[in-house]
Amino acid sequence: MKEKKRSKLIEKQPFKGKSVVVCGASEGIGKGIAKLFVELGASVGIIARRVDVLEEAKKDIETVKSEDSQFVEAIACDATDMDKLKPLLDGFVNDHGVPDYLINVVGFAMPDYIENHTLADFKNHMDVNYYGQLVPTLILLPHFMKEKSGHVVFVSSVAGYIGLIGYTAYTPTKAALIGLAEALKNELSPYKIKISLIFPPDVDTPQFERENKVKPKECAIMSERAGLLQPEDIAEALIEGIMKKKVYITPGEAGFYWWAKRHLTGLVLNIVEKDLKKARKKMGKDYKY
Fold it and tell me: Is the pTM of this model over 0.90?
């Protein structure tokens, strides 16, 4: 989003009076999304596990408030824990009303070669990336259904539809979110509840830095062609997508990859395999096999 367009959008305050719950908002994409919503007039409830990081995020997000009536409420909780999160979100609804938006950003990746992954690694990825977005949705859905309103956003990934070496535990979780979102969109249509999916490519976040320390070298080389977006880029794409009522939101090159995978599937798979071969050739003696 160009700076002039962003400034005009902030001036219009299109989300004034709206409330948003952002799960996974202590850093990176989630924090960027929460901050932009507040800049555009909304109030937010931000959810994350780490209290200290969450409180720092809250202070930073509050700096862009334009009115005293806006609130930024920090809710420290593991989004995968239904028993603990439900009373907290129900309390948020009691205090502030049913939110207009639920943005599910919770997720992580710990890439590695398949032979190094254990079954526990697969379960952990699914618990965080899938259930971490499902649980808040299940909690708030009865409120949305009663009001016949609301907009739920799931954060998937380009990896949700293009699999790469190192991400065998991560990719299935992001693909599962696509199935969940599409099934919910169909079932909840009579309740006028909107569903969206956003597919970020590589983004410059603390989580991405952690991934880079452990990912297979081939994967790092292959990822170079995609470039690197900033959390603000994803936040802006999400806001634009919501305002245009898009179901699939594809920032940066994600749109091209989304189209190509569906229309030129064989070609995309061949390109990915060739990229792997090139990466291994580039590794030379460091190639592990």
Answer: yes
